[in-house]
Amino acid sequence: MGAGLLAQPAAALSGASAPAARTAAPGGQDAGPAPTAQTATADSAHVGKGRQKPSRIPPLAASKDVLRQDGGKQSAKKPADVAAACDASDFTGRTGNALVRQIKASTTDCVNTLFELTGSDARGAFREAQMTSVAYAVRDGSASYPGDSSTGMPQLVLYLRAGYYVQYYNPDAVGAYGDALRTAIRSGLDAFFASPRSRDVTDANGETLAEAVTLIDSAEENARYIHVLRRLLADYDASWNASWPMLNAVNNVYTVTFRGHQVPEFVTAVRADPGLVDSLYRFASDHLALLGTGQSYLTSNAGRELGRFLQHPALRAEVRPLASGLLDASSITGATAPLWVGVAEMTDYYDRSNCSYYGTCDLQAQLARAVLPVTHACGPAIIIRAQQMTSGELSASCAGLREQDAHFHEAVMDDGPVAGDRNDTIEVVVFDSSTDYQTYAGAMYGIDTNNGGMYLEGDPAAAGNQARFIAYEAEWLRPDFRIWNLNHEYTHYLDGRFDMYGDFAANVATPTIWWIEGFAEYLSYSYRGIVYDEAMAEAGKGTYALSTLFDTTYSHDTTRVYRWGYLAVRYMLERHPADMATVLGHYRSGDWNAARDHLTRTIGTRYDADWYAWLAGCAAGDCGAVTECAAPDTRVLDRDCRRGNRSGAAGADDYLYLYLPSGVPQLKITVSGGTGDADLYYSDSGWATRTSHTSSSTGAGNSHTLTVTDPPAGYHYVTLHGAESFSGVTVATRY
Q1: pTM
Q2: What CATH number belongs to 627-734?
Q3: What is the pLDDT of residues 596-607, one digit of tens each?
């Protein structure tokens, strides 16, 4: 995904997280094990913007919404993706044993969709009496729990999680939860964790166990089940590594401890008996060998959660020597760095006055010296700070950014920076891998790192403010070098400086995400000359009206934010540039309401019919973006343009040419239309002829295509040769 994040710097302690995202700082845990290897797919998820701490913890979202260790995101399945037989009325219309039977007969995918219920459906499914029935079903089923899903235990536990989640966000609709549910949920969890088969080290048991551990937190029973957390930490051994669900279960221990600090009973219990602190220390110190492996996050998270107890003065005497011991057992760089950085970040935030005791004074500067030794100026406006980049990689990255700058201004036709914007430089921070990004970026810049990179705009009007993109090398593309999401995030910088008045908070005061993320995707793909296949696939589905997409916010799923944002921006820029000029004019002056009025009232649904026709064309491979080339010399081709009405006699040649900048990954040449028979010849070294060419496409008729991969910078030559006389033929080039 070309997309990373556009965000303000995270608060040093943001309290509870947005649903389904780890709280960012200080040092939210690494996400657990990745069910699949990282792939070079599209966009990473957007996370919350430092919300105010709520009065109580929002329960975590649907179980399939797994933040992956590799920095990508496995998205929660949406209702359209699951069996059509799943319907809210199956649950809202049943009570007691009938409800329990329905839940057991449903799939976990089906139950996952219930996290989205609102209104009367939310009350029908999750009022206290319903939840109490299900909690007692967990109790009754635990005595004979077989260690797998055959009796419906995963669905029951997940249903309870969904109920707490929905009730938190819809308290008026669902109604209050009281002592009746608390008694029932305790009896259910007591019985499940007492079941001998709940300790099976298998995928089948891990599926339910992981959900049950998270349910501890959802029900705010963090204090009651400290003994379960300690047991899981003690029971883990190398045999668990073969089971992703079991690894997920032990990693969920850290969710319960992390969020437990907002539950007074939990803090009181640990103060009275700090055995959990000792368990975290023993896990980290006993499993140092996991660092540098696929299970590294288990050890580093144990260290983080140990250090987090430094926030409680009554526990500092217990925690300080243990934290110091873990720092001594690890190093600021190398395989053990995730543990060192995690513990150091906690000491820096919660016990900074004693930094000399830990050796963590001036932590951010320490990390910068150790981790980012490379500083390279791409000119007066762009500085690259890197963990490791060769001179060739630095030069190529700088050239690409400068060329993208020109492409941006051509696309938006701006008149210079918006008023008051002092972000005249950008710092591009490049870690050596996604693992290094996850290890260091949070501690150095106070950001969440379960994403594909983050642009921090800050306050562009403030003197001394530094705009910064924090990124990493896409190690899975080696030996090719690529800074992941570089073009997308650099677009955020340019867009913020030349199109969007004020800071990020002002920019999103009305729904502008369709433009902010959609344009970053559009410019990234169009500049690189890459077809956005995932967006084209979405176009074929026709999911959203254009008028609907103008209402997109970060609360919507990443497919809508990024892929549909791209489609909406591309349509508006290429089909209705005058409307976009009006909207951008309002964005540049900070008149957000006027821009919103133009989109929702002046345009409204007026373009929806044409939009759907355009989507169908995109899905078929033609978004209609190619326009007549503008150069007065009719032989000149250019980016995404055509020369129509070409003609020639049999045996004659019609010569055309274009100039390509460096860094173009693909040039596509197409011939279409007209009458007769014209063959296509191409050369990158001189006029193309039948006897001297690099490649060709011949045969009856005038439908020909050539795709040139990694063409060199410079002039390229295209020739139509008359196999027979031809007329009315169109030649188009895209790159």
Answers
A1: 0.74
A2: 2.60.120.380
A3: 999 999 999 999
